[in-house]
């Protein structure tokens, strides 16, 4: 594994972003603890893809960290600023998305018997904003740790797992919301507004 030189600013920025991300994750879990009314649908087939997404993120962060850049060097400060911006964007997008989902948020593909199709907030722009947030998180970690080259393997693994997880979720959403979901899917792209 090749580890490019990094500085403390990037590592500190990533650490701060990670702490904020964990707080946003705990808040999402808290909002989603409302007991569900029966009648929802669940697809456990998404579990292997959740694990593979984690493997992709792990690949981006795995290996030694070569912290040899001087704290005040231009490269260390620029890396720190980029990592901070990516992490703040990831946290903000995750928090905005999980708040929009409210009690509908879950790790495994499922709908609630009393759930609604969420098409507001970031879901008005893309259908899978949380996966975009996780991709930003992975990129920030690779930069902060000096593992940018590992993205050559991490991105395809994460991308494939995300695609498969999305397929599982789309089956559940179509089975639950039918034509309303089909209209939403035709109107809003998966990951990049207006493109993809």
Describe this structure in words.
This protein has 6 helices and 4 strands. It is mainly α. The two termini are 32 Å apart. 35% of the residues are buried.
Distance between the terminal alpha carbons, to the nearest Å?
32 Å
Gyration radius, rounded = 18 Å
User: What would the principal axes of the Cα set say about the shape?
Assistant: elongated
Main beta-sheet strand count, sense and barrel state: 2 strands, parallel
Helix percentage range: 55-70%
Strand percentage lies at under 5%
Quote the average pLDDT. Answer: 92
DSSP strand tally: 4
The topology string of helices and strands comes to EHEHEHEHHH
Strand order of the largest sheet: 1-3
Taking pLDDT < 50 over at least 5 consecutive residues as the criterion, the unreliable ranges are none
- Tally of DSSP helical segments: 6
Structural class: mainly alpha
Give the arrangement of secondary structure elements.
Elements: E1 5-6, H1 8-31, E2 42-43, H2 47-61, E3 66-67, H3 74-101, E4 109-110, H4 129-145, H5 151-177, H6 179-187
Parallel strand pairs: 1-3
Antiparallel strand pairs: 2-4
Helix pairs in contact: 1-3, 1-4, 2-4, 2-5, 3-4, 4-5, 5-6
Describe what is shown at a glance.
By secondary structure, this protein is mainly alpha-helical.
List keywords for this structure.
61% helix; mainly alpha; two-stranded antiparallel ribbon; elongated; two-stranded parallel sheet; 6 helices; 196 residues
């Amino acid at each position: 594994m090749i580890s490019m030189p990094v500085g403390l600013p990037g590592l500190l920025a990533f650490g701060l972003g990670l702490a904020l991300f964990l707080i946003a994750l705990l808040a999402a879990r808290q909002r989603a603890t409302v007991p569900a009314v029966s009648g929802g649908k669940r697809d456990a087939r998404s579990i292997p893809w959740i694990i593979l997404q984690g493997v992709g993120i792990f690949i981006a962060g795995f290996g030694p960290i070569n912290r040899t850049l001087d704290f005040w060097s231009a490269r260390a400060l620029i890396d720190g600023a980029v990592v901070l911006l990516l992490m703040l964007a990831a946290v903000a997008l995750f928090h905005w998305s999980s708040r929009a989902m409210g009690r509908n948020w879950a790790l495994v593909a499922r709908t609630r018997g009393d759930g609604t199709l969420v098409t507001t907030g970031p879901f008005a722009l893309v259908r899978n904003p949380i996966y975009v947030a996780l991709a930003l998180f992975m990129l920030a970690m690779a930069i902060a740790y000096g593992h940018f080259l590992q993205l050559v393997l991490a991105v395809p693994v994460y991308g494939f797992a995300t695609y498969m997880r999305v397929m599982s979720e789309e089956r559940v959403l179509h089975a639950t919301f039918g034509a309303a979901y089909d209209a939403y899917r035709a109107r809003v792209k998966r990951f990049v507004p207006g493109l993809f």
